[in-house]
Design goal:
Blueprint lengths: L2 H24 L5 H8 L3 H13 L3 E3 L6 E3 L1 H13 L2 H16 L2 E8 L2 E8 L14 E3 L15 H7 L15 H14 L2 E4 L6 E9 L5 E10 H6 L1 H18 L1
Antiparallel strand pairs: 1-2, 3-4, 3-8, 4-5, 6-7, 7-8
Helix pairs in contact: 1-3, 2-3, 5-9
Length: 252
């Protein structure tokens, strides 16, 4: 292949992943023309890539209008990932222990590119539901975990990673970058971070790091609790979460 052909194929692969990520984000089937419009991509290119992804089982046609959504092969690839990287299997039992001990919602969280996502969750035993949509991509600065997952990066790397618009909080206020960096550095030293949720007004979020064998925070364990319960049980929740994080890091 010529260098030009290699670059063209690379752009096509990037665009194919854009299509998959877009459908994941919108959580509904769409026609190729709608996908092209959302991505700002040539319609003919998107139609060609959608056809290829359908042929490989990565997308499936969902209706007579030609709308498509993620295919079952994506699901099977996810199962293969889970079976190979047993950290997620270990995390499931750790979350059971956290929620059994605290009665609060616990989560296992990771980065997905330049976003944060809840990979696993156990809901607490409360009459009202405290949870997040597993797999939903969230702006990193909006989360307690977002102070721990970036601790191994320098300031320029963090600025390059996070889209500028993700510093705009749900209330419309812009987060100060220097303040955010200071929180990251302190959380990295403390191996812990907690704050009143930015996303809602009634919960408090606790997060601790899960370290890989290189000493990098590759995931976090979290507790999401009502503010009053978090205040009354702060030390207990913190100690429970830190013990669980140490356990999972030891097995990473």
């Amino acid at each position: 292949m010529t260098e030009r052909q290699i670059r063209k194929r690379a752009r096509g692969i990037d665009r194919a992943f854009d299509i998959l990520d877009h459908l994941r984000d919108v959580k509904t089937s769409q026609r190729p023309a709608e996908i092209a419009q959302a991505l700002g991509a040539p319609t003919s290119t998107v139609y060609d890539l959608v056809g290829t992804l359908i042929d490989h089982g990565m997308l499936e046609v969902t209706d007579a209008n030609g709308s498509v959504f993620l295919g079952r092969r994506v699901y099977f690839l996810g199962l293969a990932y889970r079976d190979y990287f047993d950290l997620t299997r270990q995390a499931a039992s750790v979350l059971d222990e956290i929620t059994s001990d605290t009665k609060e919602t616990s989560q296992f969280c990771m980065l997905d590119g330049n976003k944060y996502t809840v990979a696993l969750q156990r809901e607490g035993s409360r009459p009202f539901r405290i949870s997040a949509d597993v797999g939903e991509r969230t702006a990193i600065p909006w989360t307690a975990s977002g102070r721990l997952l970036l601790g191994h990066l320098d300031d320029d790397q963090i600025r390059e990673l996070i889209p500028d618009e993700d510093f705009i909080l749900p209330n419309g206020r812009r987060m100060d970058f220097d303040t955010y960096i200071a929180e990251i550095r302190q959380a990295h030293l403390d191996r812990f971070f907690s704050f009143d949720s930015i996303v809602d007004t009634f919960t408090h979020c606790f997060a601790v790091p899960v370290y890989d064998q290189n000493g990098t925070c590759s995931a976090t364990l979290c507790i999401v609790a009502p503010k009053e319960d978090a205040r009354d049980n702060f030390e207990h929740y913190k100690m429970t979460l830190q013990a669980a994080g140490d356990k999972l890091s030891h097995n990473a």
